[in-house]
Amino acid sequence: xxxxEPIDCDVAIIGGGPGGSTCAGLLKKYAPELExxxxxxxxxxxxxxxxxxxxxxxxxxxxxxxxxKVEAAHFPIKIGATYxxxxxxxxxxxxxxxxxxxxxxxxxxxxxxxxxxxxxxVDRAVYDKILLDHAAELGAEVYSPAAxxxxxxxxxxxxxxxxxxxxxVRARHYVDASGNSALLRRRMGIxxxxxxxxxxxxxxxxWEKTEWATRxxxxxxxxxxxxxxxxxxxxxxLSETRTSIGFVCxxxxxxxxxxxxxxxxxxxxxxxxxxxxxxxxxxxRGRVEATKDWxxxxxxxxxxxxxxxxEAAGFADxxxxxxxxxxxxxxxxxxxxxxxxERGKLDGGWLRSSYDENQTTRIRQHIRFADFWYSANGxxxxxxxxxxxxxxxxxxxxxxxKAFQWLGTGGFATDLxxxxxxxxxxxxxxxxxxxxxxxxxxxxxxxxxxxxxxxVSSAESVSAPVYDNGRISAVPxxxxxGKRLPVAGLFARVIEALRRGDDxxxxxxxxxxxxxxxxEQMQPDLAFKQIIQAFELMLSDGWVExxxxxxxxxxxxxxxxxxxNIHSNHDLDERLARIKTPTR
Length: 584
Hints:
Layout: E1 7-8, E2 11-14, H1 18-30, E3 36-39, H2 56-64, H3 67-71, E4 77-84, E5 92-95, H4 113-117, E6 119-120, H5 124-137, E7 141-143, E8 148-154, E9 157-163, E10 168-170, E11 173-176, H6 183-187, E12 192-193, E13 200-208, E14 220-227, E15 232-237, E16 242-250, H7 251-257, H8 261-271, H9 273-278, E17 283-284, E18 289-293, E19 296-298, E20 306-308, E21 314-315, H10 323-343, H11 348-379, H12 383-393, H13 400-408, H14 427-438, E22 451-454, E23 460-468, E24 471-480, E25 483-486, H15 489-500, H16 504-516, H17 524-540, E26 544-547, E27 566-568, H18 570-580
Parallel strand pairs: 1-10, 2-3, 2-11, 3-7, 4-14, 11-20
Antiparallel strand pairs: 4-5, 4-6, 5-27, 8-9, 9-10, 12-19, 13-16, 13-17, 13-18, 14-15, 15-16, 19-21, 22-26, 23-24, 24-25
């Protein structure tokens, strides 16, 4: 091919990172006849931050058919995270599954019940190349290095692209997975909204031969997230020898210090005793990088023949480690949307608007939840009052107590249709975290009542997309006052049980039977807990009306400060105490 010959394809994807490669891989898996081209400006492998994953990504890797390839890289298994965050200087753990239930598995591990609940901490230089090479093996045409110099458009339609070498690219669909470069978004004049006052900057470097703070059989560990007053430090083991260590602080603090990035970075690490000990004897790459971590969301993430994926669509502060999850989830849904547009059997306007609503809502929820985490790090003096501000941003005018209850009972829990959770936390976990931050336990509404009635009065009947096995299906939903109740997943199980009877015993019997249907994905007892949380969310959001009957018993639900998944880390606290007061 000469430089003057155009590249014609069905789908042109800008960027070969996890967003671009996931989108390309799924397109080729489900529609191998499509010509999919990926244009990556760099040559892989290359370093990149965003190494800490959430469990949702494993499902996408399995669907792509590259779980075994990623697992063969022997990345550390992420059981959860250890935090020093909130109104105490004590350390506490958040785990994806109870540690007592974790079982060591020979590696590489097959995809199964336990791997569904856990995540990985990946070296992006290795991980990104695995995904891009896999997309190429599936048949995607990868151009690298191939920087996009110009994007041409007519109204809301992209008409072509020009590469740095002068070649023109023509396609029917275009995907912007170019990260913070956002080439297509900027060319189409799409504005961004910054629904937060947080303006942080991050500095990081890579270290060799650090000690892991926690180590479990099978290469499992937790990331460290340590508040140090002026900001926070991340410590993410990426392999047996390599660790990513970063420092995040407000932009104004960085400016006020008058230090070079490397000086500020090293000072922060030296002032944290645990990090100083973990890096004692370790060596540093010696190149501190920096970026701004300002949360934002694009006003629009889909157009006539284009889609924004990952950070091109929006970004949520990394405190929840959701960046890669947001990226690969949006890439998956963009691929599904393009597949259905190609089939032509579903309404194109509905497909695009559904994609747009899913991504912008998801990003905004993560931004709000990150804001709440920062409010517990000393940035705000009245945390309960701040939850009122967060609720108001979501269109709710609540007093501080009710706003806290809204946050703790699922104000952001719509990451996936039919599921309950955000940032790796289920509803119970989110309530426990909120309770730690505010030093107040939020009661469960299900414990107050024992008769229940589904209430969808005055609700509008709409449709929402479910993405499965390469197809999008429209499931019925109820919409009322901005709240959506999908008749799918966990919520459908609750609705079925409520239609069989209204007393607590009949409802619970129905929910326990429904939990068995999830036995291939998770243990029935875990499925039951998830369904109960969906039930609680429906009650809190007004989809279920509760009453108390003195002749019936009630559930006793609580969110204890010390639970199976969220609890204090006494071992590391004792280690820190020894570091600060060494034995003479």
